[in-house]
């Protein structure tokens, strides 16, 4: 049924330039992008969000309000721009593509802290949105400067994480699967954490393997592996909780696969001989995490086309 609705919208609404010129068409494109990303078709999703961004810019959704008072219509426009620009930028970061919004921060920062439509997780995502833009800009820099930029990005991620209480970072024992505000808040918090660790991995991955021959990159090596471990642990919590079909998406599987591959690279990289029990235990734990991911993937139904769709 969902596929039928998606195909109808694609054929009769979002592909029609005469219809795709209002806020409602931007909403349809955003829903289309969300559907494609959950199906694992990341490139198709990116195209949907990119088109939504273009139409939204023509409508002026990217501009702040002229007056300070925010009525319901203006709030809806801000929230819509927030969602489509966040989706497009995150997918651009994952796919290594330029973002149509550049590397700037969220445009409504002045009123964001007091905005009723921004939850604590939305505010955290707002900061991750800016950091993902920094990663995109870093990837366009000459190699001679990119490591110092990576260090600054890593410091911003660490500082951002430190702003949240320890309880916020705890992995829930059970993933709620009810249509309640509590379940929604828990899900958003976990997704927020996963994106944090995904961005940390993407920021440090270019320098992770260099640590074997140059101690300068040890920070990136440690940060990249630690972020990958934390991402996988949260995916396992989702996967092993009963009745959590509503929160599964191929994007999560793609992120988990990337994290597991990163751990494999860490295990296969040249190692200095060490008898430190903590180092040996960490390697054993990484092997077990990778094995758990592989066993879980073998039981998953095959659908979507991943980054190639």
Question: What is the total tally of β strands?
Answer: 0
Mean pLDDT: 83
**Beginning-to-end CA distance, first to last residue:** 20 Å
Percent of sequence in beta strands: under 5%
Order of helices and strands: HHHHHHHHHHH
> Low-confidence spans: pLDDT under 50, at least 5 residues?
none
Helix share bin: 55-70%
Helical element count?
Answer: 11
> Domains counted in the coordinates: how many?
2
What's the main sheet like?
A: none
Our Rg estimate from Cα atoms comes to 20 Å
Q: Give the overall silhouette.
A: globular
Structural class: mainly alpha
Please give the oligomerization state of what you see: single chain
Summed up:
The chain is 66% helix and 0% strand. By secondary structure, the protein is an all-alpha fold.
Describe the structure.
Helix content is 66%, strand content 0%. By secondary structure, the chain is mainly alpha-helical. It has 2 domains: 1-105, no CATH class; 165-300, no CATH class. Helix 4 packs across helix 6 (120-138), helix 6 (120-138) packs parallel to helix 8 and helix 7 (143-162) runs antiparallel to helix 8 (181-208). The protein is globular and about 65 Å long.
Key terms for this structure?
mainly alpha, globular, nucleus, zinc ion binding, transcription regulation
Give the SSE layout.
Blueprint: H1 2-14, H2 23-38, H3 42-58, H4 72-95, H5 109-112, H6 120-138, H7 143-162, H8 181-208, H9 218-240, H10 250-268, H11 277-298
Helix pairs in contact: 1-2, 2-3, 2-4, 3-4, 4-6, 6-7, 6-8, 7-8, 8-9, 8-10, 9-10, 9-11, 10-11
